[in-house]
Amino acid sequence: MAFSDVSKVSVRAQRPEDSEQLAELYNLPGFLQGTLRLPFRTPEEVRRDFENAPSTDLLLVAAAGAQIIGQARLVRGRDRRAHTARLFLGVHDDWTRRGVGTALLRAMIDSADNWLAIKRLELAIYADNGAAKALCEKNGFEVEGLMRSYAFRSGRLVDALSMARILKGK
């Protein structure tokens, strides 16, 4: 796509009709490399996941025109962890390091801080993903620990970092 102006990227709620494009996004090599997803996701699986998501989850997409170039999900904690939420985020292989992840992360932070009363945001990133670590740190996340042999990726076990952002003073 010739569309390259990140200022034209919009962040909006995910819709059922996004399933086809999201399946394509999820199956991109770079996107897949940074997630816990398995390859070969179908649009039907993506739609089913969307339809079965708890109403307390926040699902957003980043779009450049009509093309979906990123996706983020906030999963709220329950019971005695109701003050927490876990974040998941990914960006299209052709759009990395161009502000899309920042736009999605900031939309999630704004929702958590100003609308959902979330005091602790958590996420895990692969230890070898320096760009994701820098993005998170730039937005107030701190490394809380190293999770060894966290996931099986590309034929081997890899480590991940546990990161969190704690809202203070509200």
Descriptive overview:
This protein is α+β, with helices and mostly antiparallel strands and 170 residues long. The chain has a domain at 6-119: 3-Layer(aba) Sandwich (Aminopeptidase). Helices cover 28% and strands 35% of the residues. The protein contains five helices and seven strands; from the N terminus they run E-H-H-H-E-E-E-H-E-H-E-E. The protein has helices spanning 19-26, 29-33, 43-52, 100-114, 130-138, and strands spanning 9-13, 58-64, 67-76, 84-91, 120-126, 142-153, 156-166. Helix 1 packs across helix 3. The termini are far apart.
- Rg calculated over all Cα atoms: 16 Å
- Give the distance, in angstroms, between the N- and C-terminal Cα atoms: 43 Å
Strand order of the biggest β-sheet: 1-2-3-4-5-7-6
Main beta sheet, described? 7 strands, mixed
- Regarding CATH, which class of one domain? Alpha Beta
CATH fourth-tier homologous superfamily of one domain: Gcn5-related N-acetyltransferase (GNAT)
Mean pLDDT: 94
| Rough outline | globular
By secondary-structure content and strand pairing, the structural class works out as alpha+beta
Q: Which residues form runs of ≥5 with pLDDT under 50?
A: none
What's the CATH architecture of one domain? 3-Layer(aba) Sandwich
What is the CATH T-level topology of one domain? Aminopeptidase
Number of strands: 7
Q: Work out the helicity level.
A: 25-40%
The arrangement of helices and strands along the chain is EHHHEEEHEHEE
The percentage of residues in β strands lies in 35-45%
Please, how many helices?
Answer: 5
